[in-house]
Amino acid sequence: MRTFFQPVPRYPLSASPRARLPRRASVRGQAMVEFAAVLLPVLLLVVGIIQFGLLFGANVTLTNAAREGARAGTVEVYNPTVSRAENDQDRCTAILAAAKNEFGLLSDGAPHFSATSPCPLTAGSADGSTWTNGDLLIRYCDHVTTPDGDCPDSTDPDTACGADSREGCLVRVELSYRSDIIVPFIGPLLGGGSLFGQHSSATMVVN
């Protein structure tokens, strides 16, 4: 009876399975380190894009809110039976309501935005040219010397609005808003903390 013995293959030292294991583990560990090194910057880039997208969206919304507020101020009906201050108070309240209606996903409460409704009479200045209600600022002027000029210009008395009804004068609505910063390292880059201040204004002619 013949017995056949299968010869055992001889592997070179560098090609043996036992010798290749350390190299495979080393390659796998190196790949994990490289993946982690690449993943972190990519994640920071993605969340940074999201953060700036949220800030841009808030700015667009705030701009629309300021326009709607100014538009509401131009069509507010003047009541000749009450004082100019009371008419301005009613217009301020209408402007605030119209602006907040356009906030959408933005918060209309503190610490993001603050303004009381109805607008208090104490919000008006002595001459009635400005009304300050928290983060809402309303200005009245006859005209502006430049598109971005002061309304009214303290150095030019002719820019003051003298009409009690405000008809034909300009009304400028300015809104301030503080957006949340969800990415910690972006706050210091923007010069703030967890909130980022934004500002928008719109100027229209009172009908």
Q: How are helices and strands ordered from N to C?
A: HHEEEHE
SS-based class: alpha+beta
Question: Biggest sheet: strands side by side, in what order?
Answer: 1-2-3-4
Distance between the termini: 119 Å
In what range is the share of β-strand residues? 15-25%
Rg to the nearest angstrom?
Answer: 33 Å
The residue-averaged pLDDT reads 87
Report the principal-axis shape.
elongated
Reported for the largest beta sheet, the result is:
4 strands, antiparallel
Which percent bin holds the helix content? 25-40%
By DSSP, the count of extended strands is 4
What can you tell me about this protein's structure?
By secondary structure, this protein is of the alpha+beta class. It has one domain. It contains three helices and four strands, in the order ααβββαβ. Strands 1-2-3-4 form a four-stranded antiparallel sheet. Strand 1 and strand 2 form a beta hairpin. The radius of gyration is 33 Å and the shape is elongated. The N and C termini lie far apart (119 Å).
